[in-house]
Amino acid sequence: MSLPNSFLNRLSLPVVAAPMFLVSGPEIVISCCKAGIVGTFPALNQRSTEGLNEWIEQIKDSTDDNDAPFGINLIVHKTNPRVEADLQSCVHHKVPLIITSLGAVADLVDEVHSYGGLVFHDVTTVRHAQKATEAGCDGLILVCAGAGGHAGILSPFALLPEIRKFFEGTILLAGSLSDGRSIAAAQMLGADLAYLGTRFIATKESHAAEKFKQMIVASSAKDIIHTPAISGIPGSFLRPSIVAAGFNPDQLPEKGTDQAEFGDNMQEERKAWRDVWSAGQGVGQIDDILNVAELVKKLKSEYRQSIADFDLTISNYS
Ligand SMILES: Cc1cc2nc3c(=O)[nH]c(=O)nc-3n(C[C@H](O)[C@H](O)[C@H](O)COP(=O)(O)O)c2cc1C
Hints:
Blueprint: H1 5-8, E1 15-17, H2 26-35, E2 38-42, H3 49-62, E3 70-76, H4 83-92, E4 97-102, H5 106-114, E5 118-123, H6 126-134, E6 139-143, H7 156-164, E7 170-174, H8 180-189, E8 193-196, H9 198-201, H10 210-218, E9 224-227, E10 235-238, H11 239-244, H12 266-275, H13 292-315
Bound molecules: flavin mononucleotide (FMN).
């Protein structure tokens, strides 16, 4: 664990609310930071770097050093023409945490370190983790089987210990973590922080459509399909939303292009994610649409109760 105390001491629960395309914006980030967990959003949720600047200023104006830090997700991919301008905006505003997806680049890490920021990078395999370690990333986000968005296929029980063998930095665990017990379990497995996406779709502050939030509450793990057919990279999607968009979930093309687009075809990507909704297998634990403060309170209570239960359980074996 290499998280500086200046970061750690501002958290009331070891949780990052993950960045979600078309779902997270400044409202969710501000509420998360005020509740003591890290709030994040993808830079591409704003249609321009100017818009990104406005959101960062809004977040900075509404939070202070007593609140948890916030983070911004940058898609580091050759088809994303905004990555450099968005990075410069983050550097200018000294954004505390940058979350990179797809590419792990040493120059970017150096720029963020130059003002004291941290870089966490999404990985789904040991090879990706090795590359990100070489690039000097402070944290690795292990996006395991069952995660929402572009999920991996490995079990956390397999991936985390393999990566811990060579990586001494911060490890975040992602994939189907939707309640306080899962946060405690992630720590038990050796993660420093839990990374929750899907659970935060069903919050009052999220930008998700009301029907999307209701579908999250109504769904369970069996309703999640993992397929490259929607966006070109394998991702987890809600079966009922595929049906509602007019597709047959049982007859989707077997292979995607393996080439998600963040440039000229961004409109296509935006449309795909607007019409078909992504979620992880942890939907089965989500029964309510709360505001973020209520949700964090609930997660804290479940987290503490699960640890107390566990203490009681292990006392049987001493
Ligand atoms: C609707 C949705 C959109 C997402 N968009 C992004 C994104 O833009 N960038 C990113 O790095 N991850 C994205 N993710 C992945 C999340 O950041 C996170 O890794 C994942 O949600 C964790 O798994 P969980 O949903 O099971 O908690 C998205 C996930 C969902 C559900």
